[in-house]
Amino acid sequence: MTKKLLIVDDEERIRELVQACLEDLGGWDTLTAASGEEGLKIAQTEPIDAILLDVSMPDMDGFAVYEKLQANSATQAIPVIFLTAKVQASDRVRFAQIGIAGVITKPFEPTSICEEVTEILGWDD
Fold first, then answer.
1. What is the pLDDT of residue 120?
2. Closest by CA position to 101, among listed 125, 74, 83, 86
3. For residue range 10-52, what is the model confidence (pLDDT) as tens digits?
4. φ and ψ at residue 78, rounded to 5 degrees
5. Per-position DSSP letters for 25-85, written without gaps between them
6. Could you tell me which residues come within 8 angstroms of residue 93 by beta carbon, excluding any fewer than 6 positions away?
7. Alpha carbon of 68 to those of 71, 74, 78, 84, 115: distances in Å?
């Protein structure tokens, strides 16, 4: 069965790049959201296997979106991977404490993002 991933990022070119990589290289289905609010709505109404979530977004950042996902029984089991340019040691500690599945740092290597997602989530084709 094909995995379905949700990409939440306020930058359109990042959404398009990640979407193209996941679909063309990973063979996965994707949905995209331009904001945390939109991402939450999709996550609550669609069967999602994983979420790639930008940390730095206006209005609602990735941490706020993640907290809302965790607070909702319908979405709390969905693994979340943060897409972020911020990866100081303190951030890694915070990420580990809140229980996100993993982190992919920006700028990422488009050709290897599928392998990173597979490795973080333990998906073996």
1. 96
2. 83
3. 999 999 999 999 999 999 999 999 999 999 999 999 999 999 9
4. -75, 125
5. TT--EEEEESSHHHHHHHHHHS--SEEEEES--SSS-HHHHHHHHHH-TTTTTS-EEEEES
6. none
7. 5, 11, 12, 19, 28
